[in-house]
Amino acid sequence: MIRADHDITLSLDNLTVGYFKGKSINRVIENIHLKAYSGELICFMGPNGVGKSTLLRTVCSLQKPIEGNINIRETNLNDISPSQLAKEISLVLTEQINAGNLNAYELVALGRYPYLGWNIKINTEDQQIIDRSIAQTGIEKFVHKKVFELSDGQLQKVMIARALAQDTPILILDEPTAHLDLNNRVAIVNLLKDLAKDANKTIIMATHELDLALQTADKLWLAGEKQPIREDIPEDLVLNGAIDEVFKLKGYDLKTGTLEKKSLGYKVHLMGDGHNFLWTKNALERNGFDLDENAEIRIEIKNGGNLSWHLKNEDTTHDTLNDLIIHLIKLFQ
């Protein structure tokens, strides 16, 4: 959500990230100037190997920057102790975890570790935060299952719940939807969107889910080969051609957010509205038909109890799109 009053939680100034190899330096991304705000869902995108994970690991202090500054809520990362950093940033990686014999609840509770005293005792406040994190991620039904019994989608939600239990203003995730089915990919991205808005957190997610990012992200960080990371709202990066330039998309129409379809030159006029119109349009175009208001063949979508498609020029009705398309193909052949 675009807001005029949000606080800067993370700033990267003239940052270069990469690796030290003996006396040589491998600079992966240079000249990084980025800001992240509270209440934002940021999708960090770019081709494989461009350095997304390297940047996220550097921000989380898992590796040192080559040069430049990282500031967490106006404090330089170099001046933040590991114990304090654990209260500022929580991290969810894609690597499989070995949780031994822990159940999901116990794994979520580990998120409170940075706040526990020497006796590692969970108090009432810790318990409330753990319960809240479980409710926010909707994992109540399987919270007492062993971790090794969980599906990939369930485990990812548990790991997000653990990060929420850590109660940090910044949440960073590296490919949280990798290896998940469509339902779980959508559920995870919607969950993160809601958490950013409702809990006022900064959520930065490295992802390849371009279609989901364009629909849900408040901002994109767009990393291309040997060029500075671009920062903007998704729509501006579509309209100025930046996404096309970085991904060099083939067969995907960014203007409509759909795959490009091959036309056979068959023209029909489709009449209707709502989702029935959209899915009929998709089926027709996928099979090579073009929509043209001046076409002789006129199709009217009827939804008077049972959905049907009426060809006005020959007064025939079809109960399924499959039957309609077979009939239309025969007309044109």
Descriptive notes:
This protein is α/β, with parallel strands linked by helices. The chain folds into 3 domains: 170 residues, 3-Layer(aba) Sandwich (Rossmann fold), CATH 3.40.50; 70 residues, no CATH class; 67 residues. The protein is built from 11 helices and 17 strands. The strands form 4 sheets. Strands 6-7-8-3-9-10 form a 6-stranded mixed sheet, with helices on both faces. The chain has a 5-stranded mixed sheet with strand order 14-13-15-16-17, covered by helices on one side. The protein has a 4-stranded antiparallel sheet with strand order 2-1-4-5, with helices on one face. Helix 4 runs antiparallel to helix 5. The longest helix is centred in the middle third of the chain and has 17 residues. It is globular, with a radius of gyration of 25 Å. The termini are far apart. The model has no long low-confidence stretch (mean pLDDT 88).
